[in-house]
Amino acid sequence: MPRYGRVPKRKIQPDAVFGSVLAQRFINKMTRRGKRSKAEAIFYDVMAEIKKQLGKEPLEIFTKAIENVTPLLEVKARRVGGATYQVPVEVSKERGQAMAMQWLRQAAVERPGRSMVETLTGELIDASNNTGLAVKNRENLHKTAEANKAFAHFRW
Question: pTM for the complete prediction?
């Protein structure tokens, strides 16, 4: 964290196959321990599997899944006096997409199945149909924000 000023956001180059910045950001989220080529291989295999199963454009299914999982609100802890309140705040587009990508990856990891390609394919198809674990995470977050709406005046 710098002492003075803000650090500018880095521009992410679009991915090689689809020319999509969103796809490149998801590949970056999937990358673990510097294994970018493995993450890319998994992502492109998932896209091929979606194309094979549904016969539709896989990038459209992917963007629809991200849109369906992206939250509008989140709760942040705020200490007032001796109490800690869960204060609902609006989420920026970038932050919402980042949360959606994390939830999709985590849901695919937790989903029972043989390989990451199969589980991520299933989770993306489910998310594009507004079902699945990642969509459930978004709904739970929205319920929590709705329940704590009374503390919205503690926003900073």
Answer: 0.90
Strands (E), the chain: 73-80, 83-90
Report pLDDT digits (tens) over 23-64. 999 999 999 999 999 999 999 999 999 999 999 999 999 999
Which has the closest alpha carbon to 41: 134, 95, 120, 156?
A: 120
Annotate the chain with DSSP letters as a single string: --SSS-PPPPPPPPPTTT--HHHHHHHHHH--TT-HHHHHHHHHHHHHHHHHHH-S-HHHHHHHHHHHH--SEEEEEEEETTEEEEEEEE--HHHHHHHHHHHHHHHHHHS-SS-HHHHHHHHHHHHHTT-SHHHHHHHHHHHHHHHTGGGGGG--
